[in-house]
Amino acid sequence: MVDWIVFVVGAVIAIAGALGVLAAKQPVHSAVLLVMTLFGVAVLFVSQEAHFLAAVQVIVYAGAIVVLFLFVIMLLGVDRSEDVRVETLKAQRQIAAVLGVLALAELVALSRFHFVLGTKSVAGAASEPGANVELIGKSVFTRYLYPFEITSVLLVIAVIGAVVLSRRIRTSEDVR
Amino acid sequence: MNLVAATTSVPGAWYLAVAAVLFTIGAVGLLSRRNVLVMFMCVELMLNAVNLTFVTFARMLDDIGGQVLVFFTLVVAAAEVVVGLAIIVSIFRGRVEGATADSANILKG
Amino acid sequence: MLELVWLIPALPLLGFLILVFGGKRIGEPNAGRLGAAMVGASFLVTVGVFFDLLSRHGEQRSFTRVLFTWLPSGGLKVNAAILADPLSITMALFVTGIGTLIHIYAIGYMHGDERFARFFVYMNLFVFSMLALILGDSFLTMFLGWEGVGACSYLLISFWFERDSAASAGKKAFVVNRVGDFGLMMAMFLIFSKAGSLTYANVFEFAKAGSFTRTAATAACLLLFVGAIGKSAQLPLYVWLPDAMEGPTPVSALIHAATMVTAGVYLMVRIHPLFLVASPNALHVVAWVGALTALFAATIACAQDDIKRVLAYSTMSQLGYMFLAVGVGANTAAIFHMVTHAFFKALMFLGAGSVIHGMHDEQNIKKMGNLRKWMPITFITYLVGWLAIAGIPPFAGFWSKDDILLAAYRDNKVLWLMALFTAILTAYYMSRQFFLVFFGKERFLHDAQTVAAIGPNDAHVRDHPHESPPTMWLPLVALAGLALVGGAINLPFNAKTEFLGKWLESVDLGGRPILAGGALKYGLAAVTVVLGLVGVAIAYNFWLRTNDARAQAALEPALLQRAYGVDGLYSAVIETPGRLLSAWLAFVFDRKIIDGAVNGLGLVVRFAGGKLRKLQTGYVRNYALGIAGGMVLLLAYALARAGIQ
Amino acid sequence: MQPSVSFPILSALVLVPVIGAIVVALLPKSRAEIVKLVGLGFSLITAAMAGWMLVAFHKGEAGYQFVSKHAWIKTWGISWHLGVDGISLFLIVLTGLLFPIAIWGPDERRDIKAYIAWILVLEAGVMGVFLSLDLFLFFVFFEIVLVPMYFLIGGWGHENRVYAALKFFLYTMAGSAVMLVAMLTLVFLNKSHTGVMTFDLLELSKANLATSTARWLFLAFALAFAIKVPVFPLHTWLPDAHTEAPTAGSVVLAGVMLKMGTYGLLRFGMGLFPEASTWIAPAMLTLAVIGIIYGALVATVQSDLKRLVAYSSVAHLGFIIMGTYAFTTPSLTGGVIQMVNHGLSTGALFLLVGWIYERRHTRQISELKGLFKLAPVLGGVFLLVMFSSIGLPGLNGFVGEFLILIGTFASRRWWAVVAGTGVILAALYMLWAFQRTFHGEPDEVNRDHMHDLTLRERLSIAPLLMLIVFLGVYPKPVLERIEPSVKALLIHVENGSGTVESRVSSGVVESAE
Lengths: 176, 109, 645, 513
Known about the structure:
Chain B has helices at about 10-30, 35-60, 65-90. Chain B is mainly alpha-helical and about 110 residues long. Chain B has one domain: Helix Hairpins (Orthogonal Bundle). In chain B, helix 1 (about 10-30) runs antiparallel to helix 2 (about 35-60) and helix 2 packs antiparallel against helix 3 (about 65-90). The longest helix of chain B has 28 residues, at about 65-90. Chain B is elongated. Residues about 1-5 of chain B have low confidence and may be disordered. In chain C, about 70% of the residues lie in helices and about 5% in strands. In chain C, helix 2 runs parallel beside helix 4 (about 115-135), helix 5 (about 140-155) runs antiparallel to helix 6 and helix 8 (about 215-230) runs antiparallel to helix 11 (about 265-270). Chain C is globular and about 115 Å long. With about 525 residues, chain D is mainly α. A two-stranded antiparallel sheet of chain D has the order 1-2. In chain D, a hairpin with a 4-residue loop joins strand 1 (about 65-75) and strand 2. In chain D, helix 14 packs antiparallel against helix 16 and helix 17 runs parallel beside helix 20. The longest helix of chain D has about 35 residues, at about 160-195. Chains A and B meet through helix 1, helix 2, helix 3, helix 4 and helix 5 of A and helix 1, helix 2 and helix 3 of B.
């Protein structure tokens, strides 16, 4: 019974947050609501015994990424409210809504089938003794060591990329 | 596939449903909002939905692989956000009228 | 001498080659002399071969000399070979004989022409082609000569190509001849597809063996007749002959009187074995076309003012007689008339040439008159020619035409009557021309001058007509002699005097014997003579004794002067629609429709490109929409696949 | 039995022009004369080799001679496989003959280096097309030929040359693209049957395909070749390409490149798909006959001399196609020899028209008048070539035309009858054009521009004239060499399709000679 309550609470928080991100006029509000969604999802993680991920979710996602968003919002000074109802592109919203509904319907229909493609990945049982973190750590550093190293390289590249991209070229006429 | 009773009794399908809804909201948001940053956040939403699905499957199939994948998607998401925002910054720096995706249409056919 | 039979065509060919490359250097008189010498030598060889053949009897009077294999391909094996038999040698005799005389004449006539040498190039090539035609041993070698003479007549008619009328006359002659040649080609293909060979010997043997079906033989004969019509200017392919008078007069004499136009008759006589196998109405067709053409041409000739056009229509008419003779089965009479006609018609053409030469290129007989005072020799020789064609005994024309009339009388009374009436017309229009040119008042003098003022040898008056030089009147005299004695080769009195009949017998012409009953024969002869004199009398009465303009106009209705307007009809029915069709095909169909389709394809591609370009709106979110659409489709596919499992 | 010396003559025939092109490309641009001489030298070497091959060719044999076969791409069974037989022999000799004339005849002033280089590359391509017995190799050469021709028309052409060059290129390319697809399908089908992957013509012609697939594949091949020939509805690129091409381009285009289509239909059309060839015969015959009449009719009203000759080529090639698809020995032999004859007479015609253009800078018939009086030798030569083109007996045109017509009459009577009228129309448009340009009194403009043929021009056209007369008078040696291969091809078609040639035309009947 408790499980259900946790699930519902988590789900409601997540979905409400998501809708809020969508509807908010101010980007800052969107950012905050995004954090709320993240928490909702974190709750659902916990209810599914993925404690480590919930923690990482909160720390990395909510803590770092959304903060970065806010930082950029401030930097670009885009805090002016955007008239949500105005849509420059013709029929953009209508089609988006239709596609959204369609996609949802398909996903729901699909979720009823055990739609399995390809071979079964064997990364070790989730229910073995020991904490969730140990299990993840064991499989990451054994089977998935190779991808782990690549992601680290990815992160380095991302950092360098960000620095290069956002560097302002010191041209002579650039007085600002 | 032995479902371990210890975890929550709520069947996975519900979680998947929630993830689907989250994903769709993210998609619709991406398509309808004009502000670049909000679009970006919607992308994050979609990513979270996917992570949720992974975790649900990890639980349903009792296979830690799902959670490991989420670990990796997080990394990728982080990298993506960093680079994305850098691009947004470089494009929309000094723009007066705010960062709307439609203003950058030089590549018009 | 028979061994040297290949020399006959080789000599004119040699002359042609020498003149083609060396013509300009050889220059004015010698080029002509060389040409004439070559043809003359060829004539001598022919005479030698003639006597050789004469010494043989019956079947051996045929000698084939294969030179080389021309076209070996699959079942077809055609040799370039020469067939010397009585028929071909008879033709060769008068072709080379008269050819030589005309070459000599041309030396004088073409005097001063800037392309003097080139004239003899074409003339020698013509004689070679004509000899190839008549000496060829197969349909294909004959066809080589057939089209060769066509090409040479094109070159010679349009010799003075500065004149547009001459150029288009040449083109017209070649194209109309080509229409006839088309018929001949089809006949050759039919014969080959049936007999498997094109050589006369094989084909006729195949026919004698009776393996030719009647319809195939008839079709072949009629198609060959189409060729003959084209070449011998019979109805309906005759339109080119009157225009061919644009060429120099020696050309008209040689090609359009004596030799080329007789090729059709030669062909009809040569394929006689085929006619035997074919159905009789094939020969009827030949007879009727011949008779109709004779009558048709004779009527037009009565109303022509150009001295050469009268002769041209007269030639057409006399050829009609020859075809009539072939049609009624009197091949010997046809050949006999062909030979005599060659004599007197060449004579009259050359005479006309001499008149034109003397009158400084004046061709309208209405502007001549009383030329007998200024051109006595031309007058006398022309007189012989006139009497010969009018059918007055003892001149050659009478004997040959009488044979034809006799044969026609025996075979088909209607044709005989038509032939008789044509004979009257012939006598009339020739006498009309003769009287207008040589008798009556000098219509070429300006009113101020009077006859007395100009003495016959008063040379200083610029446009005073003068006699032609010896090189021109010597051939005239020779031809006059031939026209006089020409009849001797086939006098109808008894078997012995029928020399030509016996001579051609071995070529199994199978003509029905002409020796009808004595009384009938002489009676008919008398009738033709009387009618001839009637024609002469009518002409004398209207064109010499009285000068009643109104009566004369009545005798020359506009319809006849315009030759029934057939030329206009042809151009309206064939030429103009043809040109319109080609123009439509070229500028509308080809350029607009086909080319349009091709260019259209290009336009479609560009148009599609234009439309697709619009998809790139430039808005990032549109592209996102595209991706979302793709996602939905993928999910749908996954759903479908999942559904199936 | 191969000649003892194993000098790869055929490969040399293809490679020497290529080497020539490279050498010419490296020469200094300044000395135009040198470049032209070197170009001429190389093409003369090729011509000499072709002549030697002609002499060394064994008369009676039907099979391929001087075969040189080296593996090229083993994995796909592609080999550098060249061979010559009766059918391709004289096309090679014609190519060898035409190219030196095309280089030496017209005096092109502009950018001579690239011009000569492109012509030599073109020669290599054309040689390759006629020699290759490997489908892949054939396709490569079939495509290579387009590039130099495109640049020749585009670079040295006349007024709207770019349109003509592009149209020519795209039109032919479209056709050959379809052919490539069919080629690959054929190879893979054959691989599935026999298990071995090969592009070799001889193996592939043994492949037994289902009739319907064979027909579809044949249609693809036939489309590419029909465009090249050109067959009636696909011909509209030819007049533009000819009118705009420089003289050398036109001479070569009409002389040999059109024959790639007819040769392809013979060698690859009948070789690979005998049954389909007989199945399509009535259609091709009808298109050919339409082409003959249509080409002639449209030619009569052309105002541009080159365009007129182009349409006459459509008519002449219509005859060749008719001969090919009548399936009798005389018609096929006639078809092959007519390819050579057409090359000679139309090549000469284009040379003459080119020279007239060099003197008067116009091709419009209306502006030319009375040339015969001003340039008698040019007039005489034009007359001879014109008579050859309209098929006057005693000249080469007649030999081919007559054999085609008599062969077609034996098997397909009424087509031959209709095509026969083409002979009349040919005379009409040629003589009319001749009359308008050469006859009549020359006006002032013509008088001072026109001069007679120079020695160089007479020398360059002399070989063509000699051959025109020689082949007309004594075609026996040529016919004897063509016939064995034609008979072999016909037997191949008969085995493949079961239609038997009428015994009269095939010479089986023992006529009484």
